[in-house]
Write a structure and sequence with these properties.
By secondary structure, the protein is α/β, with parallel strands linked by helices. The protein has one domain: Alpha-Beta Barrel (TIM Barrel), CATH 3.20.20.100. The strands form 3 sheets. An 8-stranded parallel beta barrel has the order 3-4-5-8-9-10-11-12, surrounded by 4 helices. Strands 1-2 form a two-stranded antiparallel sheet. The protein has a two-stranded antiparallel ribbon with strand order 6-7. It is globular. The protein starts with a strand and ends in a 5-residue tail after the last helix. It comes from Metabacillus endolithicus. Keywords: Oxidoreductase.
Amino acid sequence: MEYIKLSEQVDLSKVVIGCMRIKDAGMEGEQLLQFVQECLDLGVTSFDHAPVYGGYACEKIFGDSVLRKDPSLREKMKLITKTGIVLPGLKGNKVIYYESSKEQILKEVDESLIKLGTDYIDLLLVHRPDIIGNPAETADALDSLVKSGKVLNVGVSNFMPSQVSMLQSYLSTPLVTNQMELSVQGLDNFFNGVTDDALTRRMPLMAWSPLGGGNVFKNDDGDTTRLRDVIGEIANAHQTSMDVVMYAWLYKHPVEVAAITGTMNINRVKSAVDALDVSLSYDEWYQILAASRGYDVP
């Protein structure tokens, strides 16, 4: 396993377990505990949560099944969670909205600590940009959480470069990562300044949906078929599977990328780990880019 040093306190494994589907997968109790232990045995130490996952259920399922069953596992793992999304009905609201007020952030973190069964979060991310949020208030909440020891590091998710700069200008605490959509089909953030900004800041990125939601394997439209054929050829050349190549494609980028798997299947987690040993050539990387976009670079 390879690790990304976010700070003096936290090294993030380059493969991160996304816990969004714990409830939908029916993973709980001994089954979830065994899965977590198998991940740790692979060196996969990072687990990504958010209060809203599973309709506010997934954090508690993880806490009940893992850390309240075996508290000794806490020192072996890095816990990531988020703040700032309010689902319809939580506060009598009619629509989903983003709230990064100090009150909301502090409340959500305290609830996450209880649900997860821990007294600190290794990495807290502002889940989405709050368009009407006061950045000074958001920063005050994040700084206070770090000062209290409830949170060791802070970052953002789905923030554009200008939004990262804006929030950082109010913070005493450094933002250590930005969690963005990145995949062979999710190309926007390679070309809109996100990766350039991350390189400028020496800031690692976390990639959500690194396999593009599995569309490469499921869809049969012409664009997807073309991409699947190219990835398949490269996979055959490396004597590996297509998903391994898709992870390796992300790892090739000079931005340090931690890939967030969305699976509760340990064999699929192993694919993300195996990809760390696959080195794509320049030609292979650009073949995949061209197949995804439908044209060669100029």
